[in-house]
C-alpha cells in the first residue's frame, strides 16, 4: 500500500524546492499552519523568565543524559529486562527491520497496527513489513491520511500538514469503500475512527515510538492526543517499540520537566491528552495489555554524532518540531522538499549522520542562518552553529576533512581557491584596500548578469567611492548640524 | 479540566452512584463497564435508580471478549489515583481491578476523583507518590477526551479513545479510594 520512502536528499533538492515554491496551495497551507503553530506556542509561554529557565533545565537534562549515555543505556536495558520488556539493539535500519520481522515470524503475525513513530519511518519499516506480506496500518489520523495517499509525512508532529481538508475529503471518498465526499472534519475523523477501530481489535502486533525511555525505572514514556498510541500499546498481544539510542533519560522526574516543554513547543498545547508510562507486559493477574513488549534501540549513525563534541548537541533533540515551525525556509518549501525523514532545521543537522554528508550537504545550505530555530529550541541545540560546521565539513579538502561519513564530498578546487583568496583579502588590510580600490575603479566591468544572484535581484556593482573614501571626506552634514544646534 | 473539554461534576461520597446513573441516563448510556469486584461496582449496582443501566464487570481477560468490549459497551468507569492541577490531568494506575482498556475503548469515560488527591503538577505527583519506587505495568495521565487536529489544524474530539470524559469530583470522606 505505501511506497518505500524515496530518499534523494541532495540530488535534486533544488528542483524540489522550485516545485514546492511554485505550488501556491502548498505554500498557503504551510504558511497558515506555521502562523497557527507559532501563535499557539507563543501563547503557551507568556512568561519569558519561566521559558528561559525551563529551556536551561531542559538542555541540562538532555546534556546530562548524553554525558552518561553508555551507562544509562546499560541501566535501561537492565531495568527493562527485569520488568519483562525485551531489549534489542540495532546498528542499522536493516538490523532493526530484521528484529521486527523475526518477532512477526515467531508470532505468526499477519497484521501490524502502528502508532506514530518517526524512527520507523527512518528505517522504512512499513515497506519492509509489506514486502514480507503483512498488512501494515498507520493509526495516527495524520499518518493514516498520508499512508492512504501513498506519501511520506511532511512534518514530524503533523504528518498531513501539507494536505487541505478538501484533498483529504476527496482521498477518503476515493479510497474508502462506501464513503461519500464530505468536508466536515468531525465526520472525516469519525470515518477514520470506525475504520481503524476494527483494525485495532484484530491486529496481531502494535508498533509505537517512544518519547523518552527512563533508565531508573525501565519505563517507556509515550505521548499522544488521539488514543491510538494507547490502542497500539495495549490492545494487540505484542507491542514493539522502536526508538533512537539518544532518547534515554536518567530519572522519571526528568520526564516531568521535559514534558512541560515538549507539547508547548510542539503544538502549543499545555499538555497532551495521554501521557503513557509503560513499564512492562501484562502480569498474570491482569486482564489486558500485551503479552510481550519489545524495545528496539536504533543507532543508525547516532554514535557518529555522539563521538563529536560539537555534533553531540544534535542528539539533545526531543523531536518537538518547533524549529521547523519557525523556519522561514521550511515554511516556504515544506517538508517533502528536504527529501529526508526528518525535515527542517533539525533534519538538516541530523540527516548527515544518518545518511552521510555527501547525500545531505545541500540541506545545510538551505538556511539563512537567521537563528529562529535556535531561539525556540526547548533544549537549546545551537542549530545554526552546527549548520555552519556541516557546510565546512562538506567543503573540507582531504587534509582537513574529519572522520564524519561523507566529509569533503562536495569539495571543489575552484570553490576552495575562491574562499582562500577571500580569506587572504580579509586577513590583510593592505590587500583589502588595494582590492576595493581596484573594484571601484573597474566598476564599469561588473557584469549585468551575475548568475543566481540576478535571478531575483539587481546586479551587484561596486560603489564609485568606497566607504573608506567617504569617511575621509570632510563631514559636511555634521558641520551643518552643529550650526543648527 | 473543563478547558480541555472534560465535564466535571462536584459530588460527595454518598451521592456519586446516583449521579452517575443520572448522567448515564441523560447521555443514553445503557452499559457501563467497571472494575470487577470493586467497591464502586457494588455501590453502582445497589444505587437506587429506576433506569436500566447495565453495570458490566470487567471480569475476563480481553482475549475472550474483544469484540464485545469494542462494540457493546457504551461507557467505562475508572478511579483516578490522583490529579494534576496545572494541566487538569487525571492519573490512572492500571492493575487487576483497573484494566487498561476500561478507560480507553468505551466512547464515554467516567472517572471518580477524590478531591483531596490533587497535586500541583506532574513532578510533584511523582515525588509525593514516590513513583520511582515502583510503577505498575501501565500508568496513563489523561487530560481530556481523545482528540486530533490532523486535518487542517481543526480540532475534533473522539479520535480513537473516548469522545467524552466525565469527571466526578468526590468531596468529603474516603469513598473514592
Explain what you see:
The complex is a heterodimer of chains A (485) and B (177). By secondary structure, chain A is of the alpha/beta class. Chain A is built from 24 helices and ten strands. In chain A, the strands form two sheets. A six-stranded parallel β-sheet of chain A has the order 1-10-7-4-2-3, sandwiched between helices. Chain A has helices at residues 13-22, 24-44, 48-67, 69-83, 93-107, 118-122, 125-131, 141-148, 165-175, 185-202, 228-234, 252-266, 302-307, 322-325, 328-333, 344-355, 357-365, 372-376, 383-395, 413-427, 429-441, 453-456, 467-472, 476-484, and strands at 85-90, 111-114, 135-138, 205-208, 212-214, 219-224, 238-244, 248-249, 274-278, 292-298. In chain A, strand 5 and strand 6 form a beta hairpin. Chain B is of the alpha/beta class. Chain B has one domain: Rossmann fold. Chain B contains four helices and twelve strands; from the N terminus they run E-H-E-H-E-H-E-E-E-E-E-H-E-E-E-E. Chain B has helices spanning 16-27, 39-46, 66-72, 122-128, and strands at 7-12, 31-35, 54-58, 75-79, 82-84, 89-93, 108-114, 118-119, 138-142, 147-148, 156-157, 164-171. Chain B has a six-stranded parallel β-sheet, covered by helices on one side. The longest helix of chain B is centred in the first third of the chain and has 12 residues, at 16-27. The two termini of chain B are 20 Å apart. The model of chain B has no long low-confidence stretch (mean pLDDT 92). At the A-B interface, helix 2, helix 8, helix 10, helix 11 and helix 12 of A face helix 3, helix 4, strand 9 and strand 10 of B. Strand 9 (274-278) of chain A pairs antiparallel with strand 9 (138-142) of chain B, so a sheet runs across the interface.
